[in-house]
Specification:
Keywords: Signal. This protein is about 25% helix and about 20% strand. The protein is α+β, with helices and mostly antiparallel strands. Strands 2-5-6-7-1-12-9-8 form an eight-stranded mixed β-sheet. A hairpin with a 2-residue loop joins strand 8 and strand 9. The protein binds 2-acetamido-2-deoxy-beta-D-glucopyranose (7 copies). The site of one 2-acetamido-2-deoxy-beta-D-glucopyranose has 3 residues, from strand 4.
Length: about 300
């Protein structure tokens, strides 16, 4: 009788909230454990959401090997702000991460995971120097599985991206160089006005309506919602000037891309995307702390304890 009372009180003690709490905390916030970025330096985001690479020795143009004339680059014409939801800034398909966000407006990783096309470099002025793109992402023609294969062959919209996470400017922002390319047979050159239009068609894929490229100005703003895998994203898009030049000089393929007297290869605008997550899949609700969830867990442990109670 005494032994039974002792074991019962021991069990009650070990099942009490005091003991359950550390377990509860470490596994209830899986994203909190990985919020520091892999570089080791702490992320520090200015109010703009990124650092201007040109102010610290970097460039808003990419480094393209073997251009003619030499030294031409492609504009980094969109930036996913470091003030976006922390989950979107993680380079993952799961947990609402960056690749799931890209899929929410119709862009996927390369065809069957095969890397095609040449690498480009970018120096985001963050102390990492010139790095090749993290990945190439292509418009998937409405088919998240195989659509990017079609893009590789037929051409279409695509972008390379780099993360500003070096020790000297760790904003976590994602810099994107977007362009609309010709089919593979035509060597993947860029179509006429293909940097500005590529940027604006991507933005149009987010807003669901055509963006009037030629009338955009510093400060033009759109807000819209997209979803994939039951994650819902709200994106605020703001066009800003002053980062890129309104010019064709030094822009890769400028002879065919610029439209004489109408628009330069780079119109000088960058689309800044600030993303928040406004909906998550039903399963992830289980990961949110709530008093009712806590008591469900507590009751479950208690019942399990009782099951093994020595008689
Ligand atoms: C970038 O990729 C090229 C091959 O396309 C490679 O030769 C070069 O070493 C890479 N640069 C860096 C910094 O990784
Ligand atoms: C979505 O992207 C495709 C491919 O780039 C483009 O043809 C289409 O116009 C875009 N949609 C909008 C509304 O801009
Ligand atoms: C663009 O707009 C921003 C924010 O309103 C402003 O600070 C900046 O000076 C503007 N750029 C130019 C070139 O006027
Ligand atoms: C999204 O949620 C619905 C139920 O609300 C479910 O049937 C569907 O499989 C989910 N899709 C994904 C991709 O998780
Ligand atoms: C293109 O850029 C040059 C500066 O390089 C500028 O003088 C010219 O007015 C621009 N043209 C158009 C159509 O925007
Ligand atoms: C393209 O850029 C080069 C410099 O890289 C410049 O010499 C040339 O004039 C530009 N061409 C056009 C059509 O803007
Ligand atoms: C680029 O410069 C031209 C010529 O000055 C001007 O007409 C055009 O509005 C500028 N483009 C943007 C997006 O500011």
């Amino acid at each position: 009788m005494a032994a039974r009372a002792l074991s019962l009180s021991l069990i009650l003690l070990c099942c009490s909230p005091t003991f359950a709490y550390p377990f509860h905390y470490s596994s209830w916030y899986p994203w909190r454990r990985s919020w520091k970025r892999s570089t080791g330096s702490t992320r520090n985001v200015p109010s703009e959401g990124f650092y201007n690479p040109s102010l610290t020795g970097g460039s808003m143009l990419t480094f393209v090997p073997n251009t003619f004339p030499e030294g031409q680059g492609e504009p980094l014409n969109a930036i996913l702000s470091g003030n976006s939801d922390e989950r979107v800034l993680q380079d993952t398909e799961t947990n609402g991460g960056l690749l799931n966000y890209f899929a929410s407006f119709g862009f996927s990783g390369e065809c069957l995971g095969q890397h095609s096309g040449s690498d480009q470099g970018a120096d985001l002025g963050d102390g990492n120097g010139i790095l090749n793109e993290t990945a190439v992402i292509r418009w998937n023609y409405g088919d998240p599985q195989l659509g990017s294969c079609k893009e590789t062959i037929q051409g279409g919209n695509h972008f390379r991206y780099w993360v500003q996470n070096g020790p000297e400017a760790n904003s976590g922002a994602i810099f994107m160089g977007i362009s609309y390319e010709l089919p593979l047979q035509l060597d993947h050159d860029i179509v006429s006005n293909g940097y500005n239009n590529g940027r604006d068609w991507l933005v149009g894929n987010i807003t669901g309506s055509a963006i009037p490229s030629l009338t955009l100005t510093n400060g033009t703003t759109y807000t819209s919602t997209t979803s994939f895998g039951n994650y819902t994203y709200q994106t605020q898009i703001t066009y800003v000037d002053g980062l890129l030049q309104n010019t064709s000089i030094g822009i890769n393929h400028n002879i065919t891309v610029s439209v004489e007297g109408v628009v330069n290869a780079s119109d000088g605008l960058v689309a800044v995307l600030e993303v928040s997550i406004t909906g998550t899949p039903p399963t992830s609700i289980a990961w949110k702390p709530s008093p009712s969830r806590f008591w469900q867990l507590y009751s479950l442990i208690f019942v399990l304890c009782l099951t093994f109670l020595p008689s």
